[in-house]
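Data deposition worksheet. Section B asks for the primary sequence of the deposited chain exactly as it was used as input, without tags or linkers unless they were present during the calculation. Section C holds the resulting structure in token form. Section D is free text for depositor observations; keep each observation to a single sentence. Incomplete worksheets are returned to the depositor.
Section A, Depositor: J.P.
Section B:
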Amino acid sequence: MNPDGSLIKLEGIHKWFGTLHVLKGVDLAVKPGEVLVLIGPSGSGKSTMLRTLNLLEEPTEGHVWFQGIDLTDVRVDLNDARTDIGIVFQAFNLFPHMTVLRNVTIALRKVLKLDEDEANERAMKELTHVGLEEKAGAYPGQLSGGQQQRVAVARALAMRPKLMLFDEVTSALDPELVGEVLEVMDNLASEGMTMVVVTHEMGFAREVGSRMIFMDEGVILEEGDPKEMFANPQHERTKLFLSRIL
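Section C:
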């Protein structure tokens, strides 16, 4: 835990891609058990901010504190620290030549050095968790997009993370498959998993989020209780954004 009681914290984060200033001094703290939802227009910096949380994007300036460790310190073993942070992307990133079970166990065996039996047992538990235990022997190409995304969630959960990051995980799915992935995320939230979620799914943001942030042009313009922000946004830019998408 960080000294202020947060699980993860961004301090003064700037990110430049060449001459493009994508994040402009972002500060953020996420408490254990919180479901933080990030919304905003495309190009607002949401996904970049999410990816700085586990240093997939290295900040140009600023610090990332996770469980009391400064991940931006060059002496920190990032790979070790990252084992406590699960991340699920828009693309499923499954290995097509491996079964579902092997996709979930590969990091357990290679990174956590679990033996085969222990890895398989843990993988099957998480596949059951996401409702896919009967697909353990299937290959990704035999699954729907929604099922593949649920496998990706199971793979992240099998590492027993303290924090889960979701980067627009439903945006590549057919509309009728979105619900099954959101249901898994809803269940995780109700189990107390700390989550940071970049999403365009406003129903999920309103009902499942414990706090919502609206970003635009690399800064946090507004944050608060999701239901309150939907009902009564304070910032003009938030009002405009929500009026266009609701």
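Section D:
The radius of gyration is 18 Å.
The beta strands are 8-17, 20-30, 35-39, 61-66, 69-70, 85-88, 163-167, 194-198, 211-216, 219-224.
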